Amino acid sequence: MKRPTTTIKIYQAFPCVPPCPLWLKICLLLPLTIALANTVACAKGTDATASATPKSESPAATPVPPEAAPPDSAPLPHIDSKRAFLYTREVTAFGPRYMGSENHKKLERYITSHLQGDQVEDDAFTADTVEGKFPVRNIIAKFPGTKDGIIVVLGHYDTVYPLRNSGFVGANDGGSSTAILLEYANQLRGKKRDGYSVWLVWTDGEEAVKTWTDTDSVYGARHLAEKWEKDGTLKKIKALMVMDMIGDADLDIQRNTKGAPWLLDLIYTAAERAGYQSHFYAGQGPIEDDHIPFFNRGVPCADVIDLDYGYNNVFHHTPQDTMDKLSPKSLEIVGDTILETIHLLDQR
Ligand SMILES: [Zn+2]
Question: How many whole angstroms separate alpha carbon 240 and alpha carbon 263?
Fold first, then answer.
């Protein structure tokens, strides 16, 4: 009986699940057209900037502004995508991992067992929801840097509560985000960070327990944003990036306009460096996700999400969200791009 129409968490700008009135289609197509135009304009701008860069023999002719970042010649970072894919498979194999379930507890132990020796903190509380009270636990792993400030990378590990008896296992939605963060931890562990501190957050209770509203969604993120506002952490956050549904073999990351434009652009620049830009920003629109409580408090945010999961997003919040739809290459594309974005942020 349960179909995902009432549990789809976000407002996808394009494509639109029918029925879609004509006025809405026009409203949605317009920003896409503008987005495409902007993309072309951006590409031209980049070319113009590159050609305007002074040659070494005449540096005084057109001096580089002091705020301009030097060309980045550092080697591109690479995640171990096979390992990240294995994590996704193992996480998915637990089955439904909704708030309050036994599988959820198993997954908490799985995550923390992969963070042994790391600086790990909990943000645990009880959420009062329309379906009752649930224990919620955000898991935070901190990797200190030399610069004053924090880069937060965040992804949810819970699965959809209303689909708990439907066979929904959330390989992409919940699985991929959990796994990519575990792989980021591997990449950060044991290395001296010559940059900002990086905090990885496995958020809980991202999914609505009934229908997505401001009060029935992102339970963990809302609690954490409030807590970090009170203790002053929010002011130290230079950038916050959410990973969600990033394993789709047909990877197509939307430009979520509920984010800081400069950070969205920086992610695109990072993708360009690796030659992955064709997987980013073909479409755009406002999407609600774990970043919203931080975004609303003025934190520079980017939600890295592919909400075009199967034709017309048909696999989203269905029992068809399974491992066979995913690809290690997609984890690699997002993984490498975000690590490079962190590197670019460190230079700022
Ligand atoms: Zn979801």
Answer: 9
Question: What is the torsion angle, in degrees rounded to the nearest 10, for the CA atoms of residue 319, residue 134, residue 7 and residue 316?
Answer: -40
> Which pLDDT score is estimated for 71?
60
Question: pTM for the full model?
Answer: 0.82
CB of 246 closer than 8 Å to CB of 239: no
pLDDT in tens, 220-256: 999 999 999 999 999 999 999 999 999 999 999 999 9
Using the mean position of ligand 1's atoms as its centre, give its distance from the Cα of residue 27 in Å. Answer: 25
Residue 29, pLDDT > 90, answer: no
C-alpha 310 to ligand 1 mean position (Å) = 14
Q: pLDDT per residue over 70-122, tens digit each?
A: 567 788 999 999 999 999 999 999 999 999 999 999 999 999 999 999 999 99
139 Cα to the center of ligand 1, angstroms: 19
Ligand 1 center–CA 63 separation, angstroms: 49
Q: Ligand 1 centre from 159 Cα, in Å?
A: 7
Q: What residues have CB less than 8 Å from 279, skipping those under 6 apart?
A: 251, 252, 253, 271, 330, 333
Residue 140 pLDDT = 98
Taking the centre of ligand 1 as the mean of its atom positions, its distance from the CA of residue 321, in whole angstroms, is 10
- What is the Å distance from ligand 1's center to 44 Cα? 36
- The Å distance, Cα 156 to ligand 1 centre, comes to 9
Question: What sign for the dihedral angle of Cα 257, 293, 92, 311?
Answer: negative
Find the range with the poorest average confidence among 8-12, 53-57, 228-232.
53-57
Cα separation, 327 vs 339, whole angstroms: 19
Distance of CA 181 to the CA centre of its chain: 10
Domain ranges for the chain, please list them: 4-52+79-347
4-52+79-347 maps to CATH 3.40.630.10: yes
